[in-house]
Design goal:
single chain; 329 residues; alpha+beta; Aminopeptidase; 2 domains; 31% strand; EC 2.3.1.-; transferase; acyltransferase activity
Amino acid sequence: MPAELQWLTRSQIDASAWDACVAASLQPIVYGYSWYLDSVLPDSGWKWEGLVLSDDAGHYRAIMPVPLRRKCVLGIDYDWVVHQPLFCQMLGVFSYDTSVDIDLFLCTLYQRYRYCSTLSINRQPVGGSPLASFLIKRLGTHVLDLSIGYQALFRNYTKDRKLNLRRAKAAQWVVIDSFDPTPLVTLFRANHAVGIPGGVAEWAYDTFISLVQELHRRQLITLRYATYSGRIEAGALFVREGNRVIYLFNAASEAGRRGNARTLLIDQVLQDYAGKPMVFDFESPEKPSIVSFYRSFGAVEEPFEMICWSRLSQLERGLLQVRNKLWAR
């Protein structure tokens, strides 16, 4: 490892210097801040470390967060492996210096850890990486340029989206602002969790609530609920940091879906920030129906890449295959 590239544990990282590097980087996004990583990586079975490239004065010139999870398969402990955490769509290298070589970070990471299940790279192409062992998958989020103003944004809505927005307004939803994520979690448990393969672990809900509390403390969230006759039927959480508004989490009941409540909630936030030099990020999953919904607002794809690798032995790979088959039943 080059002398200027340091591998630091969380306790060794200068959080102020780290966060300043993220904020000044060409790839600024809220997921990279030390406090955000602390929130989405709970103590039990998770942690994060960092690769840091310093300048001659010792300032952080480039950083790369490394999220880790302890893995144990059929009684065999693989120690720590690289794994993308929840509520954290992309990470990668953060730097204000265009000459920084991302491959330097990736090679160092590859040499240190034998297994990476998923690691998404923050709008930086890794296709030219010399690491032929990487499996690279192209993904994309969907974004809107808010600087064009609301009238221009609305013109780019599809015909169906405009129609559903009119229906949502006619439904007479009462929209309320809140800082309490509990109704949002309740909606998600009742209406969405059942459709997730393997279900949702209790710690994931706890992590989400802790994250919302931290974001609220830093005054970075807009949490809105759509209600009818005093009953909450839909909710959406938006995170604003820097020049980006992220549609981080949402849920709706059947009544909320039928009444297009989430269309109304999104449209209201677009109006709030329209005309400002900002980007709205839908944080798109791979599900085609959801991607189609986001595109109906006029959103365009912003690509990023996900990498993974394995240097496990043949026996270890076999055990992983057995475990995956058991989980799939």
